[in-house]
Amino acid sequence: MPRPRRTRGEKGCDMRNSVRGAVALTLPLILPAALCAGPAHAGAGPPGAREGWRLVAAEPFNRHLDDAKVPWKRDSDGPSSPYDVDMYDNDGAYFDTVGGPAFRERLAEMKTYRKSFSFGKRGWLTAELAARDADGDGRPDQPPTLTSGKGVAHLNEPVHQAGVVIRSTRDLPAEYRVEMTLRGLEFGGQRDGSWDYPDGRINGYSPEGCKTNFPWASGGDFTRPECEWANVRTDSNGFYYMSIMDYRRVAPHNNIFIHAHRKVAMDGYNRYKYTGSGLLYCNPATGEYEPYSAGTGNGVNALFMTDDRRYATMPGTEYLMESECGFKKGGAIVSAVDMKPGLLPDEPYTFAIERRDGAYTMEMSGVFAHVGQATFRYTRAFVQDGEPIWHYNQRPDEYDGRFNADWTWEGPGGTLTDRDTWPAGSAYPDRFMVGDPHMNFYEGNAQVDDIRLYVPR
Prior knowledge:
Elements: H1 8-11, E1 53-59, E2 65-66, E3 73-75, H2 93-99, H3 101-107, E4 111-119, E5 125-133, E6 145-149, E7 152-157, E8 162-168, E9 176-186, E10 236-245, H4 255-259, E11 262-271, E12 279-283, E13 288-291, E14 299-309, E15 317-323, E16 326-329, E17 333-338, E18 349-356, E19 359-368, E20 372-381, E21 383-384, E22 387-388, E23 407-411, E24 414-418, E25 431-436, E26 444-456
Parallel strand pairs: 12-17
Antiparallel strand pairs: 1-26, 2-6, 3-4, 4-5, 5-8, 6-7, 7-26, 8-25, 9-18, 9-26, 10-11, 10-25, 11-14, 12-13, 14-15, 14-17, 15-16, 18-19, 19-20, 21-22, 23-24
Helix pairs in contact: 2-3
């Protein structure tokens, strides 16, 4: 039996305690204001209205958008590139360390091309697209596209060796709510109960050619030919429904880079026929964890990142995971809900992230397995029970340096230390991202609508 409907007010509003979720099983959920400030859902005022929030920017995609109007430009990486960030970049020293001299040989086998353009009122949104040129003809191979029509943005990525995201052009304010509506999704997961689709796609990947994580990995033999690297087609597909990143020019990079730069994230990690213990589903109706195989591979992972390292051999922050099944730190990745993409676009999903009153909140609404129409909200304070949210401080005075560390890597290329991963005096902007930022994983298409930004009223 579904659990009784609860509002966040019934569970208490103290930001020092974890809020496991606010669930509406059949009716729109109205949340209290003030510290428990949350959205009023459909029917609460004019379009885009949210109780306790003031709408400051919105993109309904009613105007024609076409990335073909913007030329592709070669990105040579390195310090002169506008996309250069740190040692985990596509040409970063981390890969020289774990891959040795062979990494540079592999990297030379491909060229990266990018395009970027702003859109929306006063250019508040920016599109970032990236692709590879492996055949050396000076043009990207099967590049991704971003277009819009009939009030919906279409993100199309025909091959996994590319990326396409929509991000905020400027830093988000000190307190905000950002949300988007999902109208369509084809980035893997089961369809009609199968990982192998009638059209030949496998977990959303086309069946043509080899598809691997080349040339970025956390170890292994970098001298291997491309097709002998890890097979992503039978590993995972996915999509970022909403994520807050800690650097300014958010754009597609290798997957390892992305894992080191997330503050909070709601994403899909759709693993092909996975039967191991590294993934779990939360059944929100029973409050019990279930094996990954009990779901449909269309889960939403709601992850608060913290300062501990999740992996010994690669960058990546540990996960704090709230769900109707409780709280977990590390271990198996928990999908908080299981979506039903077959209901799109008639039954859209809304994803939102809020930063307010010293805490982050992730929210997801739509028709989910086991419970039907529902809204789930999960909140954690910047520092709660001794666990910080990674790089939460937008200003130096918000943080005292207590979680600073050095990360050291070893490999065929020697020893490399990333010093001061979170020092006193640091500051990290909040920038949101929707799409696929991994240039060596994920393939498919999605339809996105109504990206909105609010500030407290």
